Amino acid sequence: MKESTVELRTRDGVMRTFVTHPEEGGPFPPVVLYMDIWGLRAELYDIARRLAAEGFACILPDLYYRLGDGVHTGFRDADGRMISLHRLDPGRERQVHAARETLTGAMVMTDTASLLALIDADDTMRPGPVGSIGWCMGGWLVLAAAGHYPERFQAGASLHGTRLISEAADSPHLLAENFRGELYGGFGALDHLSPPAMAGELARLLEPCAVDFRHVVHDGAEHGYALPDRDIYDSRAASRDWEMIHAMFRRRLEPI
């Protein structure tokens, strides 16, 4: 497997972007990974590597690059696991939100245009449809990218995605008529930020649209369940998500 960190020029600066893909074969179907509120860390690099080993070119951008290099806001418990946001004390919770609040959807959609240019200029990446996976705020960004670049983002997975339907002017559900290809949503039955009712509302909203939307609400799963380094990681729910994601990618991206 090959991997590198690309210093990608954007409208606002230089966004360090991790890229990994198999050493031989190709070109490989590209998949953009949108980080969660915590920033880039070993956990996300490892997910990118595992997906690349299955025949994809994975692109993992540092969306906090405007704040400087290596912004990571995680805290760990006595067992070395990342503590979920809703289990932090108010002071540490504010620290996490401070980084997130510097970022807007418009900023990331501009960054996404630079990511698509990177994909198009790299002959190890297959032209055409692009996949995406995002967690928490990254799940929101998966839907936003599908709405802003529907001709490219054809297979997106939003895992415990937040603010998928809201009254905000940039709520991604407002772009639903633009969605194409396929979207998958993974939700936790105990998720206070992305409740099952929102998942059902999203499914009803997308029913008449030109996108194939599938979703699973996982019994007993909390917000953040899909990430293996988290204190509330749910391996059974995460495995089901990966089953659905791989099936979607086979249908839409045709991996090597």
Count, helices: 6
Question: Based on the structure given, which CATH architecture is correct?
Answer: 3-Layer(aba) Sandwich
Rg value:
17 Å
Main CATH class: Alpha Beta
Instruction: Let me know the largest β-sheet.
Output: 8 strands, mixed
Helix content: 25-40%
Q: Which fold name is given in CATH as the topology? A: Rossmann fold
- Count of discrete domains: 1
What is this entry, summarized?
The protein is of the alpha/beta class.
SSE diagram, text form:
Elements: E1 2-10, E2 13-21, E3 30-34, H1 42-52, E4 57-61, H2 90-100, H3 105-121, E5 130-135, H4 137-148, E6 153-159, E7 182-188, H5 196-206, E8 212-218, H6 235-252
Parallel strand pairs: 3-4, 3-5, 5-6, 6-7, 7-8
Antiparallel strand pairs: 1-2, 2-4
Helix pairs in contact: 3-4
Features:
single chain, 256 residues, alpha/beta, Rossmann fold, eight-stranded mixed β-sheet, 8 strands, 31% helix, 21% strand
Report on the architecture of this protein.
The chain is an alpha/beta fold. It contains six helices and eight strands, in the order βββαβααβαββαβα. It has a single domain, classed as Rossmann fold (3-Layer(aba) Sandwich), CATH 3.40.50.1820. Strands 1-2-4-3-5-6-7-8 form an eight-stranded mixed sheet, with helices on both faces. β3, α1 and β4 form a beta-alpha-beta unit. α3 crosses α4. The longest helix has 18 residues. The relative contact order is 0.15.
